[in-house]
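Project outcomes to date are best conveyed with an example. Our students and postdoctoral researchers have been running inverse folding experiments weekly, and each run begins with a structure described purely in tokens. The record below, which covers 169 residues, was selected by the lab manager from last quarter's runs and is presented without edits.
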């Protein structure tokens, strides 16, 4: 009887804690929602698309634009995404990306506030085709848990770099 009572008490306490947290499991402070809605920074709550951008001297550029649908709370992002990987038709290639630019500037991301980052690829090397990039977003105080995915055609090569997240599409 005592064991059953203890199990019921634990179940009630866990339910109360989850209810008080808005049904959200523990998450990084950077992703913690400001209001009642889930954070736009969580990978499941935004859309990312890769498009060709204007080339610069010696480099091809691609823009990864992130948008969040209505119904999600805004959040803060900073620096270049980490753990960037590229794949083509589901097969990951061997290219990994470094980063460049200011890694401390924070931007607001959420519904009506799209952000983007640049993928810079050396133009002097033969490129490897890719149709998807996976990456981990960063907040001012650390990485945001989970992996985001962006779709779009690009060519990557050794020496590929990823710029910091910036405001605007």
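After processing, the design step wrote out the following sequence:
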């Amino acid at each position: 009887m005592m064991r059953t009572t203890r199990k019921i008490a634990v179940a009630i306490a866990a339910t109360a804690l989850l209810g008080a947290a808005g049904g959200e499991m523990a998450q990084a402070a950077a992703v913690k929602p400001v209001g009642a809605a889930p954070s736009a920074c969580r990978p499941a709550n935004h859309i990312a698309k890769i498009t060709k951008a204007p080339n610069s001297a010696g480099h091809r550029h691609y823009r990864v634009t992130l948008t969040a649908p209505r119904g999600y709370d805004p959040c803060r992002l900073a620096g270049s995404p980490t753990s960037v990987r590229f794949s083509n038709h589901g097969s990951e290639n061997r290219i990994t990306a470094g980063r460049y630019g200011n890694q401390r500037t924070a931007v607001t991301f959420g519904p009506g506030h799209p952000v983007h980052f640049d993928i810079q690829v050396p133009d002097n090397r033969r490129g490897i085709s890719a149709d998807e990039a996976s990456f981990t977003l960063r907040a001012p105080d650390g990485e945001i848990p989970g992996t985001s995915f962006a779709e779009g055609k690009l060519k990557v090569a050794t020496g590929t770099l990823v710029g910091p997240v910036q405001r605007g599409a």
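The CA atoms of residues 67 and 84 lie 19 Å apart. Confidence is low (pLDDT under 50) at residues 1-33. The training component of this project remains on track.
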